[in-house]
């Protein structure tokens, strides 16, 4: 028999939302997801999108508290949850939650804030801060950089539950833009996952690590390599990916310590980052993204009780 | 009375073509342009596009020699003009010309080769090599870097008419991609040429000069600055432009000498590059792009006679 749902945890991103039923003991009773990400909803549509997912996780329809992290709390989302400002203790996330009103009384929703940085380089995050709190809870005492690869990679300097500073690298988005819209697209049409991809990736990563200040100049080598050396699309895609990741990692190498860098993201992407960290004499360890977001939401909820 | 056209000079780019009638004494008798760039034509359409422009420059319809530089000589253009390989003497361009056949006997066309680089970073250029030859002819004895800002900026190390090496920076294309397609577009909608543009440009250029290895991380500051400090679209556009140009110039600063760097490109863009060079303790001088391409085509033609 399934454990009763005591509350609901939600990670509400720009393109989709993921929700979990949590039992009284903290067990996950079930999960559900929806394509109704923040980017697709107007303000008034959030309650119905949430109710729809809740009905799947708890068909009994009993009243439930819901704790939400991510883009639902953005200014253009459901209800703005003002940023905490780094440096800050992520155990403060719960205290910063906002409570949008639901049209019926069944669900009670709270949205966690994101974190901003105003000194030492303006930056913002929404969603990642909850993953970072979860990581801090699951790896007590960890101090050092955490890397969260993705469309907009986040690099945060953690000291226990404290976030000291962070920065965003537009690596994933740039890869997609260049692949889809730039002159390099001509060299990236065809089979991108062929046998040349690994070799291209290593060459690009080495170039990025060796000359991070010359990214603008190295990008065009994808095109020149295709024209002059007949580089195939798989090699070119690997080179571009490696060049961008190598450049990103080189920008942080001065702050990478002896401990493996926790990598929070999709498993294939984390493997690529771990490989480049190793090429640079460091190392990474992949952390399950779902596990840390759940741990973060649980910790935030515990602080709100 | 207009001087008789002795031959025709053509700069045939991807998006358009520009042509000049040249008199026996070297005077420009007239100019014409067409939207029929290489990128819009299939191989068989080049002769008619050329004849159309020639008829405007020389209505007499007498037989004419035409010397062409640029993308008409690309593999996907009219007829491939195989690259010269750098390092090379640009006075060799004429000897590398190819001669496509014209359907009627009125025009006799020759297309100059581009230049490629295989050692020390694969790269290619088509069109810029002719401008560089023109610059070398107009500034005899110049040795040092030449910067050609644009969609794909070229930086070439010249020693008289000899091109030692060169590299391409995808600066202009990246600006357009980020402005049009990336998450930064949200911060770049509205009046981009407002009074905040200069201030944003200076801030971005300084960031690029200070931390060229952190371009991926600095880009997102455009978005964060709009969210946190209410930066207006003009400031954001200036910051992005400055950041990219500052990063590009920083990558070359080790090779910039005491002499002003010749800047070949559009006047407004050259002014921005000159400003950032000055911020970095160097200087630039704008060179008229039409003047050098004409000088290059004339020098190449003289070598072919």
From TrEMBL, chains A, B:
Recorded hits in Pfam families, A to Z, give: DGOK (PF05035)
Q: Record's superkingdom?
A: Bacteria
Output the InterPro entries linked to this UniProt entry.
Answer: DGOK, DGOK_C, DGOK_N
Report the protein name in the record. 2-dehydro-3-deoxygalactonokinase
What is the organism of origin for this protein? Devosia honganensis
């Amino acid at each position: 028999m399934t454990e009763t749902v005591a509350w609901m945890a939600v990670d509400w991103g720009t393109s989709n939302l993921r929700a979990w039923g949590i039992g009284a003991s903290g067990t996950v009773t079930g999960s559900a997801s929806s394509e109704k990400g923040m980017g697709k909803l107007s303000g008034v549509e959030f309650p119905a999108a949430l109710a729809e997912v809740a009905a799947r996780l708890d068909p009994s329809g009993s009243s439930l508290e819901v704790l939400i992290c991510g883009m639902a709390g953005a200014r253009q989302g459901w209800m703005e949850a003002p940023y905490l400002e780094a440096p800050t203790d992520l155990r403060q996330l719960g205290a910063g939650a906002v409570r949008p009103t639901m049209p019926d009384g069944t669900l009670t929703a709270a949205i966690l804030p994101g974190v901003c940085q105003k000194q030492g380089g303006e930056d913002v995050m929404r969603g990642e801060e909850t993953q970072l709190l979860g990581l801090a809870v699951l790896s007590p005492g960890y101090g050092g950089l955490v890397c969260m690869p993705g469309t907009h990679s986040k690099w945060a300097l953690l000291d226990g539950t404290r976030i000291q500073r962070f920065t965003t690298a537009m690596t994933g988005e740039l890869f997609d833009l260049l692949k889809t819209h730039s002159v390099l697209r001509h060299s990236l049409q065809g089979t991108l996952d062929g046998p040349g991809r690994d070799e291209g990736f290593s060459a690009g990563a080495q170039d990025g690590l060796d000359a991070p200040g010359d990214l603008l100049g190295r990008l065009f080598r994808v095109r020149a390599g295709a024209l002059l050396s007949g580089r195939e699309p798989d090699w070119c895609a690997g080179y571009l990916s490696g060049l961008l990741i190598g450049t990103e990692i080189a920008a942080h190498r001065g702050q990478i310590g002896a401990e493996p860098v926790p990598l929070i993201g999709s498993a294939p992407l984390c493997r690529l980052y771990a490989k480049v960290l190793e090429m640079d004499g460091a190392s990474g360890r992949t952390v399950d993204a779902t596990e840390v977001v759940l741990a973060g939401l649980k910790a935030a909820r515990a602080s709100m009780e």
